[in-house]
Records
---
Amino acid sequence: MQGIERIVILTGAGISAESGLGTFRDEGGLWAQHRIEDVATPDAFGRNPALVHEFYNARRRQAADAAPNAAHAALARLQADWSGELMLVTQNVDGLHEKAGADVIHMHGQLDSALCAACAYRWPAPLDMSVGEICPSCGAPKARPDIVWFGEMPYHVERILDALQACDLFAAVGTSGQVYPAAGFVEEARIAGARTVELNLRDSDMSYAFEYHITGPASETVPRWVDRVLAGG
Ligand code: OAD
């Protein structure tokens, strides 16, 4: 693409849907089956840590069995072949971008990581975490999933905002645009004068803010879009 050097790509649950991982807000999605306030807040973990672990243990097991699809592969190819700068940011907690060979920033944490609530030490999470697990660094029985819950600060936001403020092209793939700060990234990119493109199965809450829209399943739209970007079109 002419005049494009710096790219920022944001992905959401929609990119992993065709790998068999359920999204949050599509029909029958995770938030239709579980209440956010029961499983995805610090209060929930304080009240019923066993239930929260059970929820993330199930997600972790599913993600461990899942394979990346053509959309993850295409973004990894773009990252490898792009001559300019490219930052890939995901809201997803699965490891499918990495499995496809990409270098990705996890702004909402990672299922395969455990976090000590006492000293903030991180270590590889076992497939099943349990209540009272001991931190290998400080010894406190305070292990929790390394997931950003509602009411907590997403990771790496400053670094992402810096990249958005300098980017020429911003793309959002498979995200409903309902959770901030990620939902506001398109506005940051527009202020920077970037071209903006949304790739989604359908319109999202933020569609109005994007200049271009590519509609369809990510496994089909993303590889075609990557080809166009690499061809300079
Ligand atoms: P959502 O479940 O809110 O939205 C999924 C989006 O993917 C929707 O806009 C769908 O239309 C789209 N989609 C579904 N299948 C697709 C496909 N095959 N190809 C392309 N698009 C498809 O998921 P997110 O926007 O990622 O946060 O949710 C954002 C955050 O809310 C998550 O990171 C999570 C959740 O609560 C936390 O848990 C902190």
---
Amino acid sequence: MFQTLMPRTLVLKYLSYINNIFITLGVELMNSFKLPENFMFGTATASLQIEGGDKNNSWYRWAEQGHIKDNTHCIVANDHWNRVEEDIELMKKLNCRVYRMSLEWSRIEPEKGKFNSEAIEHYKWEIQKLIEAGINPLVTLHHFSNPLWMEDEGAWLNAEAVSYFERYTEYVVSKLGEHVCDWVTINEPNVYLLIGYVFGEWPPGKTSIKDYLKGAKNMIMAHIKSYNKIHEVRTKMGFRDTMVGVAFHLRVYDPKHGTALEKRLCKNTDHLTQEIFIQGMTEGKLVFPVGSGYPLGKGKYFDFFGINYYTRDIISFTLNPSQLFAKTEVKEDAPVNDLGWELYPEGLYRICKKYYDRFKQPIYITENGTCDSKDAFRTRYIYDHIQQVKRLIDEGVDVQRYYHWTLMDNFEWIEGLSARFGVVEVNFDTLERKIRKSGQFYAELCKHKAVTDEMIEKYL
Ligand code: BGC
């Protein structure tokens, strides 16, 4: 009756509207839903976390120095360097159409200014294999690790890093640009610089806000030069389909009690950890306290807005000036993952909506996933986050892709091999891979571009 009175599209719109009210109210409702046919699903990884076999990078040295919490190492990791084909088979089983991978700079330029053609040929071969398998690569140039020669020259504190990165970009794109149209210049500059230059827990182990800001300026400049270079090289090759962006790690910051002071502190934290990078890397603007003006010119230095979303922080006031008077904690009684990060799917909605309203550019969710060694809540995690994606699309937000972090358990930086983020489980003694239950759910999601009633019945 209802359906005869209203057109089907209107009914669907109405139901989705009602559903969104329930989601907002936090009421548990598990529904089937469908995403647009052209939406793209995939997984994401980073070279250092999976490849193994390279001693020429900052993380190899960091692990050798005994900084990894569980005393594991990145020297073997998943041995992906030797198992590319096996891992592409896994992606095929997961029905992934896109894959975000990174290149190890230290392999490609093992000595300053000297490029290794074998390494770049290996990556070219891997990329061709992916394309043959119907999987489109999104290639990241920098994902937290540096060649040792670069690290020893001061890493990202050295202003020369900007031209080093530009030269590396030019080499890589001239070799791979024929096959790769989608690029991420830098992964999560904020996370890399906060943990490595302020907290001192990652290489190069610095603990200075001044260094953080210096590194931020250099990374912003490096991104802009790299963005321009990728376009320049590919345009000369005759391509017009180049897409370049940054994978920004973005969090929600919410005030603990909702006071005006806490709201101010949320804004400050957002400014210092996110906004300085966003303004710098999207339009070339250096803002206080990184700098001022547009040193490389005002422009548009992104073709998609990449979002890595994991969690939110709750902010309150502290007298501690070294924390800039903002104490961050996890929301009381909230569900958390194995690393204690709050599971907060609505955050994905809030972040995507905020930056889409501001930039009106395509959004790629370049990372989203969770640490769950028992695979106890990952399926639900994926469901909840994709439901938010559906909600965004229904509201006209142009989210085009979702890259799940991560394909398979891997070297989770200082947490080592014991933190498990994979939809594929890895036995690090035998290196055997096995698709988890959540991976089977993900495979069906990627295949149908939908959560069906059968999937809810079977997995949720
Ligand atoms: C990073 C990944 C990391 C993941 C989970 C992101 O910050 O880009 O390399 O493994 O989060 O911690």
